[in-house]
Amino acid sequence: MRTARGAAALIALLLFAVSPAPAGKIVGPNDCLQCHDHQAQAAALQKHPHWRSLDVFEGKKAKEFLGKLNIKDPYSEFCTGCHATVVDGSPDFGVSCESCHGGASEFLKPHQKKGSYEQAISLGMLRTKDLAVRAKNCAGCHVVTDKRILSAGHPNGSAFDIVEGSKKVQHWQESATPDQMKTAWAAAVADRGGIVVAQAMPAAASPAPPPPAAAPSKSAPATTSAPHSATPQPAAAAPVPLPAAPAGGAAKPPESRPAEPAPSEPKQATSPAAAASVSLPPDDVWTADMTALDSVASLQARLILVLNKLIAESGGARVDPGPPEPASATAASAEARLIDLQRRVLALQRKLLAPPGK
Amino acid sequence: MRATTALLRGAILLTGVAAALALAAVAPIPAAEPEAGSGDAAFGPPSDGCLTCHAGIEPMHDKVEITCVGCHGGDGSAKEKLKAHVTADSPGPFTTSANPQFSWATINQLPPEFVRFMNPGDLRIADLTCGQAKCHATEVNHVRKSAMANNTMPHNAVFYNNGSIDSKIPIYGETFTMDGSPAKVVADPPPTPAMLARGALKMLLPHPEFFVTKVRDPFRPFERGNNAAGDRGPGTDGHIAAVFLNVLKTRLNDPTLWLLGGNQIGGDFRQSGCTACHVVYANDADPVNSGDIAKYGHSGLSFTADKSIPKNEPGHPIVHRLTSSIPSSQCLTCHHHQGNGALGNYQGMIWWDRETDAEPVMKAGGYLYQPEQASLASHNGEFKQTQFQDQHGHSWTYQNVYLRNRRGLLLDGSGAVIPDEDPQKWQRAVHLKDIHLEKGMQCIDCHTHQDMHGDGNIYAQMTDAIEIKCEDCHGTVRERATLITSGPPGGNDLRNARTPFGKPQFQVRGGKVYQNSRMSKDVKWEVPQIADSVDPSSPSYNPKSARAKTMQVGGAWGKEIAADTKLAHDPGKLECFACHSAWNTNCYGCHLPIETNVRTAENHYTNKDSRAYAPYNQQGIKYDSFLLGVGTTDKGNKITPMRSASAVVVSAKDRNRNTFIHQQPTVSTPGFSGYGVTPNPPHTVRLKETKRCTDCHLSAANDNNAVISTLLGIGSNGAAFIGDYAFIAENGKGVRGVRVAHGDEPQPVIGSHYDSVLNPDSFREFVANGRRLDTSYAHHAPRVRSVQARGEYLYSAEGKDGLRIYDIAAIDNKSVAQRIVLNPNSRLGQDTTLKTENATWVHLPSVLPMNLDRKSAPANQEQRPHPLFRYALVTDATEGLILADVNTFTDGDPANNYVRRAVTFNPGRKLDGAMMVKTAGNIAYVVSAKTGLHAVDLSDPLKPKIAWSSRPAHLHSAKAIAIQFRYLFVLEASGVKVYDITNPIEPQLVPEGFIPVKDARGIVIFRTWAIIAAGAQGIALVDVENPEKPGPPTFFDASGVMDDATAVTVGSTYASTFAYVGDGKNGLRVVRLIEPPDTPGHLGFSPVPTPALIATLPTRGTVVAVSEGQPRDRSVDESGNQIAVGNRLGSRPFNRHEMDSILFSNGQLLKVDDNAP
Questions:
Q1: pTM, whole model, 2 decimals?
Q2: What chain B residue is nearest to A63 in terms of C-alpha separation?
Q3: B295: DSSP letter
Q4: I need a surface site. Which of B370, B758, B911, B1111 has the fewest CB within 10 A?
């Protein structure tokens, strides 16, 4: 644990639901293309809108759209979660290799050997051969459920056709039939909560800065979001859309997408249950054994601890950690609370780090 | 994710100090780099044995690990060197792990497995290593066919400019099979017609090993057995054109990628093939040129952790690692060549001109640098006139190029003159390296993957494979950059390119274009957009840019951007760098003295020795002038910068060391002079120090007549070549050749400062003897009035003896008693005289030899030479103007050595008393003491007509003229009068253009100076920068000894310029005009001359004329008739219509002002 890599993993654990498969760090398409540049993949990739997915930020509509959302910098996590490949914190590329295949830092070298597929899967490569895995991954971005950005005019994904979409990016031998693909897609969409229809824009967007972090998967707790039941997946007790890549550049979220801005969302009622079985960690979160902590509830608890430490430093009142998450709490409400906590931690941290007099 | 990262790091920092400390305490040191060849994931046979000796060696191939044996072959399990290594029975010079010096073609004799062991990137075997099917097969395949490998362009240009092959489409190129055999390369599938039109080739053949060739050059050829050098024998034995022997020996920009670099000195260290570029060497210690690796110096030493590699042996890469971060210093191991590559410009350097700061340079090391010498750059503190680069590729030395005004004085960034004595002058001076380099961009930051590797086609020219264009990154006046390459082979998306550090090379953020460096990690810059520079609402608005780029034909600019075709500087017709260049290099002189009696190795195919070798000797490397012309067909024949490349003269010595070819210019296949001009992107972009309006258009102040004349290729006498013999008309005695320069390289003018540096002993003796020249050869010709040397012949006007043409070939060493003979030796007979009544002057429309009988295939995309160049123009006081067909002296046909009178022209006896004729394009200006000045239209040479005659009142006793572009200077009784000949058939007398020099007898215009031979007053120097308002004359008579000055011409040698004065009864005088170190600003366009008499040849007769030198800056005449061959397909100097588009607007003379609002 006490290595740099361990620290990165710890940070990943802190914020997001975790997969037992080690989350690979995003290395960026350059490393992949060291080999695959000479193959059809690169040619296909570089002609595909995925590769150009950052271009929309420079397009004519972008200004208007971002204005509605009160986002000044589209290259912040709010948008890059889906629109970019973020390498070492920098959204340098559009949707690229690892967006679909998983962060490659762990499997980059091992997978170069013939017959290393299962090993690579165990090191974080996504099993894209599995239609359900693939569909869920696509749905992570192609189904947009955030009402706010939908209200601003963002497509919700209803127009997305997995069969045609796959053809555009196809650089593999497709064995699935269109019907199978559509079935898998339907399941993935359902898992995301269905296609959400855009609402009218809420009055006067709050001046709050964009949410600091990409949201984790809605299907947050690992235990409740096992992959598609039809797909035996040894190494993937993981929530199929891989965890997002947070600090230290841990795994990139293939399906991470803009968070729902917490302040404008009503808080969900909470009741204890799901997290009841999770014992709270010791007071000093940093020395805890993190491997046991894998639920949103425990992450919330850790954030509360962090928050209270920050408050203590700044001389404010402690935050009431509140009751544990109820078992019946929806993933959405848990996520909203998590985000709220993150925002508060960030705000306090900024305040503490600000130079005196400001 | 960055914010999240920061958040949590902040949280760590603030909440768990102790824990964080604990974490930090155990944070791992980055693991030591694994050694190459280790690790399970490495490809290739296990190589553990290699590490027994090579412990510490760096992994070559970062992302995909490959074992040692995977690349190099050999036995990776063996622990003994000889068992592990691949060995060769005859390794030639490859005896150590270092790249050997000058290995050249020896690599072709090595077994492929040894080549692979020595360099897995060598192109012979790269398809087994780098170029395996799933790896870099495309790149290896493309590079093998690229110009960087086969080097076809320079070789074929050499053949073509010598007239030795018929086709401008290259035929020969260098390619090898795996075992080193010469190979033919075939394009499969063959190129389409569209591809052919833009330079793609169907195939390339290896150079045949010639023993006999058809000899097309005008020289006495090398002959089989070399037993008859000197004869121009009709169909005797087989011959070989010297160029075929020499092209594989003399280094152009080669060796190229099939062979290793010279590996002798900083600037030459590299391997062959893929590794030539992708494994970098310590070549140049200048951080600007080498980026991060400059710290490793320039000695080709290794800094590897591999314990087995000696660290004191030159010829090793810096470390054992492939990279795509290639500094320009690595590119310059080939592209430094002034004559061909000319990309040293990018680093703000040119070849040393061999004379500037000659004294300290000779002390520090000399012309050809040796590895044991410290770099000349380390002596920069000792140099007063220039500064030098750190690298010495090919053992040459390279001088920096600085911003200077037209007078040659150094300027600082604000444009202020830097005093010569300023100790900080080099710090204040503006080193004119390309702005891209100055901002940190190496070659690879502009030139794409495809630019470097080629696109798989075989191309005629280097630029054919270049897809990048300025606008691809900088956009246009209307649109921001597309980042799609738009060169002919382009269409590729630059946003797909990535740096070696994993960044996209280009990013668009908030409408701005950013570029990440390929050389240095975490370095990026914004790419300025032209659209911003012309947009008044943009903070990047630049009114000068807006004015230039939005200027419409007619003068309106700025408000609205008109359609391209209405723009004065239509980007469809004008290359960006036609304006965006600070300077360009010109090779106004290159001497190749071939010695038959030297056995040297053929460098490229066999390494076999054969006779003949010619080194390079640049004699006119200059950056003082800027030329424009028409670019290649594949780039749309746009207006583009041109440069002289090169004005080659050839000498040759036979086996008895007799000189049988003596400083001869060549004649190209289409019949134009072989003094080629090449379109080139100068790679000298600067923000401020760029071309201004008056650099290319006539200025409102009318002070750029010489500049524009030079720009258009018409020339301004700035690079005339006299050579080591000056020819004079010695009335009363004969025609005479006078040795005025030393014959062996280097060839300083006798008595010059450079002579004193090179030959101190003979110089002292020369001075002690009163600076008297002692070698000259004459031929009896008592009535001689005028002489003009061209090629191997001297044309002479001799009163009632008429026109006589002498053979002056090999004057220095002729194998016969008479050095100048009237009849060339042809067994089929000859008569080189033409009787006239009273010949007074002879003039050749082109002093450069041309051959009007040559036919050129349409595929060569050449113009026809104007028929006027077939003739010598003779004035005769009785007969008027005579045209004599003298093409026989360049046509190489032994059966027609007769001069024929083509035209005698004296309508109404208007040309009676004709004294002199000179041409400006198709118009011959005849001056007569009796009838004044006449313009004779020779558009059809056989049907001349008088187009204009001067008013009798204007000229009295007119006797001589000189012409510079728009102005004609007439010497008459009262002094010098100036005519404006902008309209050549309606000259206008310029009222204020009078130069009050009495007894003016001869005149030459040199750049912005008129040099007038003024009898007893010596010579007068007059500033004619504005010919309509000449400055006051300054007289120079060498303390009174030069008192009969009658004729004058100028010649440039190295960085100096001399006047050759026919001082009447006193003989020939050599007067230094511009010369380092005495002339301030000697590197400028037109420095203020500092005359000094340096040598004299006393004569018995009266010297009345001096032959003009070869105008090496003249590629076209005033009517747009091409003189010099264009070195690229479709490229040529301007025709008259194109010149007019620069000089006129709506029928009016276009005059511009740099500072106009």
A1: 0.85
A2: B510
A3: G
A4: B370
